[in-house]
Amino acid sequence: MGRALIRAGPGIGHTDTHGRDDSVKRDFSPVLPGEGATDYARYMRTDTLLALQRDPAEMTHRDELLFQVVHQSAELWLKLAVAELTEAAARIGDGELAEAELLLARSALAVRLITDQLDMFRYLPPATFQALVPVLGNGSGAESPGWKQAQAASRRLDQAFSTYLADRQIDLRKIYSGNPADPVYRLAEAMVEWDERVALWRVRHYKIAIRIGSHGAIGTQGSPANWLAKLIDHRFFPELWQVRTELGGEH
């Protein structure tokens, strides 16, 4: 499939032994089942994907496209992150810590990309956001299915790690006081990285919400910012953070 997608790129042809380019003779007709004029469109399901946003005739403001693209792409990245977290928990259960560590790194990168794309909202003035509010109904980011699944997957990961430590009578304090190359230490740090990336995403989300005027400042009565600010300090793996804090305090 990868070769088929690459060979279809513009300007890439095949030259025979006589120096003649025969790219125009090759048949690139789609061979995969499904809808779409090309195999790329059929495999990536681009016709369906690009139809998920509101039609221009339905929009109350042109920036609805920006708003939907940011949120819909975040759901896709969260779907990937959840898949990696779920597999990582299974690998821990099988004692494959190095593999779990790599999967967690992929999950953390997905959240970093979600965080970076929030910068698109810098181009959404408060007046524009207010124009979008009616079409959002009672919708809230807290209802994101990807986020709910990420929370559940993180809890499963924590349980898998805790079970691994308990079954082998591993003391986290000793691990963190020992060799950073230890597979348990490295896995614990990958879990901390995931936790931190999620926290940074929340911070950026909060700051953007303040910037576009969708939330009042912290302390404003009834402001969603009060709820969002509390989530910033939430930790999926509090034990890992506590061990680090205790060891740091001792020194």
TrEMBL record:
GO terms for molecular function: heme binding; L-tryptophan 2,3-dioxygenase activity; metal ion binding. One of its GO terms (biological process) is L-tryptophan catabolic process to acetyl-CoA. InterPro entries: Trp/Indoleamine_2_3_dOase-like, Trp_2_3_dOase. It holds the Pfam family Trp_dioxygenase. Keywords: Dioxygenase, Oxidoreductase. It comes from the Bacteria. This is Tryptophan 2,3-dioxygenase.
